Amino acid sequence: MSNLSVEDAVLDGFAGPGGWSEGLRLLGLRDIGLEWDTAACKTRAAAGHLTIQTDIAQYPTAPFKGRSRRQIWSPPCQAWSRAGKGLGLVDQPLVHQAVHDLAQGRDTRAGLLTACKDERSLLAAEPMRWLYDLRPEWVCMEEVPDVLALWRQYAEYLRAWGYSVWVGILNAADYGVPQTRRRAILIASQERAVSAPEPTHAERAEEITLFGAGRNRWVSMAQALGWDHGQVVNTRGDRKTPGGNEFAADGPSWCLTEKTRSWALRNGNQPRAAIRGSHEPAPTMAFGNNSARVEWVLRNGTQKNAAFRPLDQPAGTLFFGARCNDVSWVCEEPAETVRITEAEAAVLQSFPADYPWQGSKTKRFQQIGNAVPPLLAAHIVSAATGIPVPATPMAAAA
Predict the structure, then answer these.
(1) Residue 393 above 70 pLDDT?
(2) Residue 46, SS3 per DSSP
(3) DSSP assignment, residue 210?
(4) Is there a contact between 384 and 138 (Cβ–Cβ < 8 Å)?
(5) How far apart are alpha carbons 96 and 244 in whole angstroms?
(6) Measuring CA to CA, how many Å separate 168 from each of 112, 143, 186?
(7) Is the pLDDT score of 249 beyond 60?
């Protein structure tokens, strides 16, 4: 670590490809990430974020003592996941026990790990080891909503140690992210009283009142992807002969996670082509003025209960992974399907369209889906530090 400058850097555990890092960058802060996955480490390096590639469960806290006064955590959530075989669900009592023991200065992880059905379950207890040993000025933690009970256990110990703590569920769309991604959040500080970050957006636009300015409407998928309000998309594309249906291209997207894979398009447009990643060529798309209109929707999966979102709403949580759902833009007639691109998925997570994802195609999409939306991260850290979130094009969208 001698070649890394960690003073004044935020310790970012389970750092992933840089969602928290990009959020910190918006606030003029920086982090040093601890991350195991090689592809995510390469992405962080390409984006200019400091990283130590390591197994956090084996890494000692001592090198950070007196050098890192702030922490961020987004541990894996296998013990709370409803996906797959769900073996980790039975490990929840063991995770709670590990957190309790670590908060007393007792490291019982090795023994508890032998009883776990999923060896990854105890990683959700790792933050307590670092909190107990380092006692940071502030800490922010994020995970899926089902982890809220675990965050409340953390909060009990942090309050006993003199921290001001807020724990609850936040919706990323309330902070300008074009995605209704809900996450369990913990914010704690020894330096200031903390509360939930003040939302900047709402499902419906709010008017200015005597009590202050109203909130903007949630950012739609169309806004985030550069499809101007009132603009019409022609389903026939850029062809010599007339025809095709049309739709208004303004609305938000579903939440992105590691299971998201593709968009099903019933027509195309130039703004979409403009942000496509370099890995995939853009199809020919065009605007038109036909009176007939069709509405595009984002289908989040192919199962019977798959959710659908129109363009004038935010996206729901998008998933990418080995057991991926087919997330697609869907239009009944004419039927057309087009894969979501890295650039589009990144934008719906509030990353820059040209963020330098690394690794295989599967790995790149997994990173996008698993990342914390940077704009949400910035608002969470702002609540912990008092540093205001600067205006960004996406955050200012109405």
Answers:
(1) no
(2) helix
(3) T
(4) yes
(5) 58
(6) 28, 11, 7
(7) no
Q: Evaluate whether 389 touches 379 at the Cβ level (below 8 Å).
A: yes
Both tokens of 71, joined, read 């922490």
Chain position carrying tokens 């195609």: 361
Helix and strand numbers (H, E) in the chain are 11, 16
At residue 228, the pLDDT reads: 52
CA–CA dist 104, 8 (Å, integer): 27
- Read off the amino acid at residue 19: G
Cα separation, 367 vs 268, whole angstroms? 26
Q: Is 161 exposed, middle or buried (0-12, 13-18, 19+ CB in 10 A)?
A: middle
Confidence of residue 52 (pLDDT cuts 50, 70, 90): very high
pTM of the model: 0.82
C-alpha 129, offset from chain centre: 25
pLDDT for 300 equals 66
The single-letter DSSP state of residue 308 is E
| Ranges of H-type helices in the chain | 19-26, 38-47, 92-103, 109-115, 126-134, 148-160, 221-224, 270-274, 342-348, 361-370, 374-385
* CA-closest candidate to residue 224, choices 391, 390, 352: 352
Burial of 249 (0-12, 13-18, 19+ CB in 10 A): buried
pLDDT tens digits, 57-103: 999 999 999 888 999 999 988 778 776 566 778 999 999 999 999 99
Q: What residue ranges define each of the domains in the chain, with the CATH number in brackets? A: 10-203+372-385 (3.40.50.150), 219-356 (no CATH)
Q: What is the pLDDT of residue 87?
A: 76
pLDDT tens-digit series, residues 279-296:
333 322 222 333 334 456
Q: Assess contact for 74 and 54: CB atoms under 8 A.
A: no
The DSSP call for residue 338 is B
User: Which residue's entry shows tokens 């008092």?
Assistant: 386
Distance in angstroms (rounded) separating the CA atoms of residues 201 and 180: 11
218 is written with which tokens? 């949630």
Enumerate the β-bridge partners of residue 299: 308, 328
- Alpha helices, H only, 237-356: 270-274, 342-348
Q: How many C-beta atoms surround the C-beta of residue 32 within 10 A?
A: 22
**What is the biggest distance separating any 2 CA atoms in the chain, rounded to whole angstroms?**
74
